[in-house]
């Protein structure tokens, strides 16, 4: 799959994760937009991404709630969402929120890349 020109929106309240993961995705050819506050993704007026990668627990917002809102919005309902969390036992709640995939932290960047590629192919 060609990652060129594919846009990823990455939301996490840990600036270190945003920087590291964002940089790795850019090195793979993705166009990345990052935010520390997940609520800002609901107000995006500039082009929509091809996929969202959201942390479940962020200050001020819950990735599962954001996922539910994205999946019920006509403009964003078909955009894949991968939820990430430091808690591995949240996979079921991620699925019930409508997430297309789940990844527990810490994760290998290769695992995230393959999940992104799988979601974008479907």
Automatic annotation (TrEMBL):
<dbReference type="InterPro" id="IPR050595">
    <property type="entry name" value="Bact_response_regulator"/>
</dbReference>
<keyword id="KW-0597">Phosphoprotein</keyword>
<dbReference type="InterPro" id="IPR011006">
    <property type="entry name" value="CheY-like_superfamily"/>
</dbReference>
<feature type="domain" description="Response regulatory">
    <location>
        <begin position="7"/>
        <end position="120"/>
    </location>
</feature>
<dbReference type="InterPro" id="IPR001789">
    <property type="entry name" value="Sig_transdc_resp-reg_receiver"/>
</dbReference>
<protein>
    <submittedName>
        <fullName>Response regulator</fullName>
    </submittedName>
</protein>
<feature type="modified residue" description="4-aspartylphosphate">
    <location>
        <position position="55"/>
    </location>
</feature>
<dbReference type="Pfam" id="PF00072">
    <property type="entry name" value="Response_reg"/>
</dbReference>
């Amino acid at each position: 799959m060609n990652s060129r020109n594919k846009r990823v929106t990455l939301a996490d309240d840990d600036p270190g994760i945003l920087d590291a993961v964002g940089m790795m995705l850019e090195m793979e050819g993705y166009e990345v937009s990052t935010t520390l506050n997940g609520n800002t993704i609901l107000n995006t007026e500039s082009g929509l991404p091809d996929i969202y990668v959201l942390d479940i627990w962020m200050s001020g917002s819950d990735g599962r709630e954001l996922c539910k809102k994205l999946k019920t919005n006509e403009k964003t309902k078909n955009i894949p969402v991968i939820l990430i969390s430091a808690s591995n036992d949240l996979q079921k709640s991620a699925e019930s929120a409508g997430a297309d995939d789940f990844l527990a932290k810490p994760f290998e960047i290769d695992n995230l890349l393959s999940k992104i590629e799988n979601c974008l192919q479907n």
